[in-house]
Amino acid sequence: MGPEVRTEAARLSAIFEGLGAQPVDTSILQPADVLLDLYGEDIRARAYVTADPLRGEMMLRPDFTVPVVRAHMDEGGDPARYCYAGEVFRRQETDPDRPIEFLQAGFEIFGGDPAQADAEVFATIADALEGLDLWPSTGDIGILMAAVRGLRTSEARKGALLRHVWRPRRFRALLDRYGARTPLPAQRKALMAADDPFEGVGPVLGLRTRIEIETRIATLRDEARTPPISEEEMELIDMILDLRETAPNVLSSLRDIAVDMPAIGDAVTGLTRRLDAMSARGVDVQSLPFEGSFGRTTLEYYDGFVFGFQSPTRADLPPVATGGRYDALTRQLGQGRAVPAVGGVIRPELVVQIREGRA
What we know:
Layout: H1 3-18, E1 22-23, E2 29-31, H2 32-39, E3 49-52, E4 56-60, H3 65-75, E5 80-89, E6 101-110, H4 114-128, E7 135-140, H5 141-149, H6 155-163, H7 168-178, H8 186-193, H9 210-225, H10 231-242, E8 244-246, H11 247-260, H12 265-280, E9 289-291, E10 305-310, E11 321-325, H13 327-333, E12 341-346, H14 348-355
Parallel strand pairs: 1-5
Antiparallel strand pairs: 2-4, 3-4, 5-6, 6-12, 7-10, 8-9, 10-11, 11-12
Helix pairs in contact: 1-14, 4-12, 6-7, 11-12
């Protein structure tokens, strides 16, 4: 990591501090239990885990947002804004050429009007990257989540779909099963039809007890008796996921969808206010891309507006900048107290590579 990358990180930090952001630092080692509670065991595939004899399992910091939110919810007052620059660590088992340690420079806003804060963070990141050949992408996970919450189906099904919003393949498999587009596997059908599923199977082995297995089978039977999600609602969800147009055209489509799916009405209103606020900050919203599924493969805390900036000529590179809204994360880490929050991060080494023509 050369000195030019550190210089770029300092430049970005100066921009954020100039907007009133308080510089913060967080420990490189973070409690693993907090991240495991948030993301489940999936995070182990992306983070470095170590054991401390006194503090238990710890993780090398995979990003700054979670520790900054923890600190704010413990000690901060609203509204507040923070900035940071430092190393984060990600395992790269599928792509050994990508760095496992790199710098992040970020800007976070807590409190205030959500539409205005979303617009400020996006415009700030865009301005900091001015002069680079980058394409923006935007989306809104909150619209999909609102659509799921409004489905005419069981709370158990809606909860399962919401847990897998950030796992597109698993989400699709569940949705197709709940909508009766794919049949139940024969083995599961036989299991649920059996009067005594344990008959002739021998002793119970593994970590689950007999009671836990019986409870799971009862849950599966309840699920099988639940009527399928209507084809009309399935098609509306598909329309949201397939959206890929300029923001104004997407907004028009979403307003049409909201006629048949009123549950997304507030989220669509939020998108309208955000686009107005972005336009007031000089963002060309008329040509701004919007994708219904954008942001669903990132770390699992974005629950509203999401954005990114990518090199159009190097699709193999990670995004130069990403960000979004994470109100629900503040509720999880604030023990029920929620604060509107949005932020964005830039990778200084990618900025340097693109600026010098090495990307």
